[in-house]
Specification:
Elements lengths: L8 E3 L2 E3 L2 E3 L9 H9 L3 E5 L3 H9 L3 H9 L15 H17 L6 E7 L7 H14 L4 E5 L6 H4 L10 E6 L2 H11 L8 E5 L5 E2 L11 H14 L6 E4 L5 H9 L4 E4 L13 H9 L5 E4 L8 E4 L26 H12 L14 H6 L30 H10 L10
Parallel strand pairs: 3-11, 4-5, 5-6, 6-7, 7-8, 8-10, 10-11
Antiparallel strand pairs: 1-2, 9-13, 12-13
Helix pairs in contact: 2-4, 4-5
Bound molecules: flavin mononucleotide.
Flavin mononucleotide binds next to strand 5 and strand 11.
Amino acid sequence: MKRVDDFRLQFGRHELVPIMIGGMGVDISTAALALEVARLGGVGHISDAMVPTVADRRFKTHYVRDKLKRYKHNVANSDKSEVKFDLGELAEAQRLHVGRTMEAKRGPGLVFVNCMEKLTMNAPRETLQVRLKAALDAGVEGITLSAGLHLGSFALIEDHPRFRDAKLGIIVSSLRALQLFLRKTARLQRLPDYVVVEGPLAGGHLGFGMDWAQYDLATITAEIQAWLKKEELNIPLIAAGGIFTGGDAVGFLENGAAAVQVSTRFTITEECGLPADVKQEYFKAGEEDIVVNTLSPTGYPMRMLKHCPAIGSGIRPNCEAFGYLLEGGNCAYITAYYKALEANPDTKTLSVEDKTCLCTHMRNFDCWTCGHYTYRLKDTTRRLADGNYQLLTAEHVFRDYQFSNGQQIALPD
Ligand SMILES: Cc1cc2nc3c(=O)[nH]c(=O)nc-3n(C[C@H](O)[C@H](O)[C@H](O)COP(=O)(O)O)c2cc1C
């Protein structure tokens, strides 16, 4: 019986353990987690979601406070058109977050950054371009473009000196999305270095509609693989979403995937950015607690624990401080908030049912997004005398994927 360790992911001169840890915003996949994975010989991701906010937390900068100060006069206004990010500050925050992480990197693996296109930041093109260029400036080894079609993203950095040397990949959930991307970027003569095929059991936002349950990762991966072969395109495929054991991973590697991208198993590791009490919520979750809903203002369905504080919360939009999902001065949460306020003008505790203020709740770790198999996390550890579950190290989980046989899961000592 084969183990993950019998396979290798070849990226140019790098020979890697074929395990990639997915980017989990906002700072759930921390620099510490990505660095540990790189030390172990895999590929770790940080995420640049809400990067000024993350930089403030990591480096005691004041990007959020300063932005709020600039736009405080607009807080009660539902029109957020004037609330913009300072592109110089955004670049600085990104260079800090990425640069400091790269400086600390040790070992044979790689550190990539996950960039969500759907963080439109009231100036989608400009802000994404700044984030991508600053990440390349700061020495990131690869960029994974996620959440959004990214049809113009490669062109935003085509004049950057590292455009052809850094690894660039995209996340897709269908062959059609990949075909569109390749058609749109053909003139650049630059294929993605890898394609993450993300199925419907992943955490975070899903690249499917609410009919997600009708799709399955193995089928989509096989379809994309067959098409690439027909077109004689040699792009490594990385399967993601619901790969819970080493045996699951081997199944994909034997069928031609170059690597797997995994995340859920790492949400309860010491290095993960979620607060300790939230990690216990992930452990405790039953299958019935995990839902896919349409609360995200991005328009993509999102998977989360159904009792997380973000659901039903009616806080005032915080766009002057955050505003990462603004587009044309609006966000679907603003619309939902003012609609709820109009319907309940006298209420003291407003509840907004249609959407959630994702910026605020991700920032506060109150939106507990998770993968479908989160309910199996309790089976990967031991129960302590106080009733809590024992946290694992990233090394333990990584090595379990790498060396376990079949569906076995190694419990901690
Ligand atoms: C808590 C959590 C947050 C996530 N956030 C993001 C994100 O910000 N961007 C992204 O591209 N994918 C995100 N994902 C998806 C993962 O990167 C990954 O592709 C997927 O969850 C892998 O499946 P698994 O969790 O079943 O292992 C997130 C996943 C989890 C569990």
